[in-house]
Amino acid sequence: MKKLSLLPPDHNDPVLICEAIRSRRGGMLNKLDRMLLHSPVLAEGWNFFFQKLREETILPAKLRELTICVVAVVNKASYEFEAHAPLFIDAGANEEQLDNIHKVGSAEFEPNCFSPIERDVIKLTVQITKDIKVSNVLKERLLMELDKRQLVELIAISSAYNLVSRFLVATNVISEGL
Fold this sequence. Notes:
The chain is mostly helical. Helix content is 63%, strand content 0%. It contains nine helices and no strands. It has helices spanning 15-24, 31-36, 40-55, 61-74, 78-90, 95-101, 116-131, 136-142, 148-170. The protein is globular and about 45 Å long.
C-alpha cells in the first residue's frame, strides 16, 4: 500500500531548492520541508514566501510568534506549536503566557497574563482561524496600536500559518522531536 511519508533528512533533490531551504533553516531540512519536497515547486515557493514573512515583515516578533502559537493550538498542530513556542519565549513571552495559549477558547484561559494588544492579537487569530472573518471593531482597535502595514502583516501571518497547520495536520506531520 502506498503511503505519503517524509523524505529522508539527507534528501537533496533538487539540489538548488534543498540548498536554499537548508540555508534558511540553518543547515537542515525539518519535517515540514521533507513533506513539501514531494513537490519541489511547492517547496521552493513556500520557502521564499515564509522567508519574507519571517525576515522582512516589521510586526514585532512577539506578536508574530503569539499568533503562530495560537493558530497551532486552535488547529491542533502540535508540530507547529513545538517549533514556535521557543521562538515565542525568545521574543519576550513568559512561561505563564505560553502555558495559557493551550487554554485559548476554554473557560480556563486567563487573558490577564497578556497585554491588551496581545489579547486583541489572540482574538484576531481565533477569528481568522475559526470564522475567517475579523470584526471591524477589532481591526480598528488594533490600528490604535499598530500601523496599517503591521495589521496587514498580522492578518497575513495568521492566515499563512493556518495554511501551515492545516498542511501539517492533513499530512500527519506531528511532533516527536523536530
